């Protein structure tokens, strides 16, 4: 049993016991599948992607909330977990494809993807590259372009490459520009460095 604090700083319990755990070296992705007691949407599943701020436990907690509403949900880690990248440098979108294919090959005819922040960016890119595999996308607070890569420390170190790749090719990307000491611009959006 894990404990998290809600917005009022009260401890809440999170039962994070998935039906199936997936390991990178065995399945090609790191994730957890949560099946509802009563499936309200048969043969449909949604992949959940967190942002760079959260831990994988928070992604699983969010997935569990979807599951409580009758939706089969796969929480997917794509960053900063054992065996996964700790920075964004041409990270392969095929990673998402592996998870979506597992769902398709196991009876889920419709696969959606939900992401927040960097996860929303990844959700949009994945859905645009795999329209025959991903049928629905929900992007919460995405950036408006594919941004350049970066290493996440106290302040990000910008890399001269894309965050993402597809089929071995770097995706075209927009560069970050320093506006002030703690603010950068990428496309038309301003980002506080502390938030990355």
Write the layout of secondary structure elements.
Blueprint: E1 2-5, E2 11-14, E3 20-22, H1 24-27, E4 30-34, E5 44-49, H2 56-68, E6 72-77, E7 87-88, E8 91-92, H3 94-105, E9 110-116, H4 118-129, E10 136-140, E11 148-151, E12 157-162, E13 164-166, E14 169-170, E15 176-180, E16 183-186, E17 189-192
Parallel strand pairs: 5-6, 5-9, 8-13, 9-10
Antiparallel strand pairs: 1-2, 3-4, 4-6, 7-11, 11-12, 13-14, 15-16, 16-17
- Say which CATH homologous superfamily is assigned: Alpha/Beta hydrolase fold, catalytic domain
State the CATH architecture. 3-Layer(aba) Sandwich
Q: How many H/I helices? A: 4
Order of helices and strands: EEEHEEHEEEHEHEEEEEEEE
Order of strands, main sheet, comes to 3-4-6-5-9-10
Count of folded domains = 1
At the fold tier of CATH, the topology name is Rossmann fold
Strand content: 35-45%
Task: Tell me about the largest β-sheet.
Answer: 6 strands, mixed
- Number of strand elements: 17
> What structural class do the secondary elements suggest?
alpha/beta
Under CATH at level 1, the class stands as Alpha Beta
Approximately how much helix is present in the residues?
10-25%
Point out poorly predicted stretches: 190-196
Q: What is the alpha-carbon Rg in Å?
A: 17 Å
Shape: globular
Summarize the structure.
By secondary structure, the protein is an alpha/beta fold.
Q: What does the model show?
A:
This protein is of the alpha/beta class and 196 residues long. It has one domain: Alpha/Beta hydrolase fold, catalytic domain (Rossmann fold). The chain is 21% helix and 37% strand. It is built from four helices and 17 strands. It has a six-stranded mixed beta sheet with strand order 3-4-6-5-9-10, sandwiched between helices. The chain is globular, with a radius of gyration of 17 Å. Residues 190-196 have low confidence and may be disordered.
